[in-house]
Amino acid sequence: MFGYVIPIQAELKVKELEQFKGAYCGLCHSLKKNYGFLARFVLNYDFAFLAILLSQGAGEMQYCKKRCLAQPFRARRCPEGSEPFHQAAGYSLILTHWRLKDQIADGGFIKSLPARFASLLLGRAYRKAARDFIAFDSHCQTQLSKLRELEQAQSGDLDRVADTFAAILPHAAEQVTDEAERRIFEQLLYHTGRWIYLIDAYDDLEQDKQSGNYNPLAARFQLTDGKLREADKDWLETTINHSANLIASAYNLLPSGQWSGILENIIYLSFPTATKSVFEGRFQRNMGRWQRRKESTDI
Amino acid sequence: MNDPYKVLGVSPRASEDEVKKAYRELARKYHPDNYHNNPLADLAQEKMKEINEAYDTIQRMQSGGSSGNASYNGASGGYSGNYSGTSAQIRMAIQMGNLVQAEQMLNSMRDRNAEWHFLMGSLCYRKGWLDQARQHIQQAAAMEPNNREYQAALHQVNTGGFAYRGGQGQGGVDMCDCCTLLMCLNCCCR
Question: Between B38, B132, B157, which is nearest A249 by CB?
Fold first, then answer.
C-alpha cells in the first residue's frame, strides 16, 4: 500500500534475506490461493511486515516450496498456508478496497477512472476477504469514513487525523489471547500506522499542493506553499521518531522468535533510516523494488 | 519460578562474567528510564523484576548462597507526590489506563493552569497523540519553568523519547541524549 516498511537488505544475514523473500512470496501465494489471481496486485511490503509480526507469536509455521510467474525456475520455501499470512492477505485487500472507494468518492468521474477500474477488478477478491474478516471490514470502513470527514473539514488536528488511520491495524491484535501480549501488539501496530501515515503525508506535501488535495501537515502547520519551515520540520521529525521509539520499546517486550532477525532489522534500523531519507528527500517511491532502499542506505 | 538461565538467555555452564554481561544487556533493555510514561511501563517493570530475580538466584547458586542483593534496583518514580484531590484522581486514572474518565475530568476543569496542561499532555502521550502531548507539556513547562516534573516530561517529548536498539546503540541513538535524560530523571527522584 505504501511500501515504507521494508528491511534494510545490506544489514540482513543471508538466511534472513531468504526468509524475508520467502515471506513476501508467501503473502503473494496466500493472496492467490485465497482470493484469486488478481488479488496478487495488492501485494506490498507493509503487509508482509504484518504477516511476519503476527507469525512471530503464532508458533510453528507450515512451509512449502512454490514457483510462480515471477520466479518460474526457482522454487522458494514460503509459509503460504499459515493463518497470519491469510490474515495479512485478507487485511490488505480490505484496506485497498476502502481506500479505492475513497478515491472514487473524492475525484471526479475522469480522475477516478483508474480507481474505479481497480476496484472493479478487485471486487470479487474483496468480497471474499470481507466474508473472511467481517469485523475488520466494518472497522476499516468506520475508520476510513472518520478520516474522510476530517479531511473534508480540512482538519488541522494532526493527532486526531493520524489516529483514525493508526487505529486500523491494531485490530489485527484482537485475537491474541494473552492480555500483555495483546497490549504490546496494539502499541506496536498503532504507532506503525501513525508512522506510516505521517511519513506518507510528508512525502506527499508537494504533490498535494500541486493537485490541491488535502494534506494533514499543510493544515496543521498552516502552510501556503507546500513547504515546511525548518522548525516545523524538526518538530514533525521528532514526533515521527517518537513513534518509532514507541514501536521499538513495545517490540522489546515481545519474546524472541524465528522472525527476530528480520523484525529487529525493520524496527531498530529501517524505521529511523526511512524517516531520515524521507526527510532528506532521498526516498524513491518505487513500489516493490529493493533498489529504492539500497539507494537510501548507501549514502 | 522460571529457569534463571533461560530468563537471562545464557547456558547453565556460563561463566560469572557471561552471566553478568547478559544481565547488564537485559537491564539496559528494560530499564525503567526507557519506559518512562510509556503505556507499557508496567510490563517492562515485570520483565526487570524477572531478570533481577534470575540474576540474584544465579549469583546465590554460584557463590554457595552467601551473595547479597547485587542487582539493579529499579524503583521507578510513579505518581506518589502530594497532589490536590482532582489532580491525584486524574493522575491515577491516566496511570491505570482509564483514559476516557481522565479526559472527562480534565474537560470539566475550569482552571487551565500548568498542572492542567501537564495532565492533558500526559493523557495525550498515553493515547499516542504525540503532537498535542508536546504542545501541552511545553505550555505547562512555560507556565511553571521551575517544576522538575514538567521539565523532565518536556525533555522527553522534545527529544522524541528513547528506546533500546540492540547492543551497539544502532539506529543513530545519541548517547549524550540518554545521559542527559538519566541526569534529569535523577534530579526528579531526589
Answer: B38
